[in-house]
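Kindly go through one protein, given below as sequence and tokens. The question is how this chain folds according to its tokens.

***
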Amino acid sequence: MKTVNLFASPSHALTNVQFSQFVADHLQHLGLIKKEEMTDEEIVKLVATLTALLGSYDKVLVKITKSAISEGVRKLDTNRDISHKALKSALKTESLSTDLEVVGAVHTIETFLNPYGNVPRLSLEAETRAIDAIVAELEGTKYRPMVEKVGITAKVTRLKADNELFKAKYNTRTSEYMAQETADNIELRKQVTEVYTTLCDYAAMMARLERGPLYDKVVTIANTIRTKYAAQDNRSAERKKKDPKKDDKTTKDDKSSDKKDETKK
């Protein structure tokens, strides 16, 4: 029996929106495993069940988040849309460079971005995931040298910062509204967590028994995503420690915005 470590899951510390994104990221990466490798019926069954439960959870979440969108959230969403546009515009400008290496780097980056389509037109949650993925790649070892060559590092940093600000506000607001919902919603999250935990624990056990590379892949996916979200949670906690007054102010601003909306109604 070999040693296989399954990292601690940060899911309990995640907001409801973050939790949905957390599970969705697992399903997205599991979906990239080739069908011929997915030979374990138990894993296939657990993934199908998890997908269905997350779909039900997200339906509730969408209904609630529509009520959670305040003026402050809309403004932050607009800011990140502008930052995304600035990044694309900078690439377009640099495509006219007389430096062939710069032009080549621009082409490679644009080819990477193309599948994401018109990011600002996506739903709020989908846009958040798309920007997270784009920034992660552009800051990674593969694309970072090209980003630096083109001279758009500041644009990538700006997009990342604006997306993080949006997530902090949006997740807080959504959690506040979700807390007002019925016990059924709490039960849904509990069910998703139980199936997710069963899937990961089962894969880890089979990996320890050396039953095949499929299980190692599932454990690697889980550990990678858990590490990513644990780091995000830690950064969020640090921001709150550094500037708690800012959080209080934004909350007051949202309450004021809600009152204005109610008056209009």
Notes: The longest helix spans residues 213-242. The CA atoms of residues 26 and 70 lie 29 Å apart. Residues 245-265 have pLDDT under 50 and may be disordered. The two ends are 65 Å apart (CA to CA).
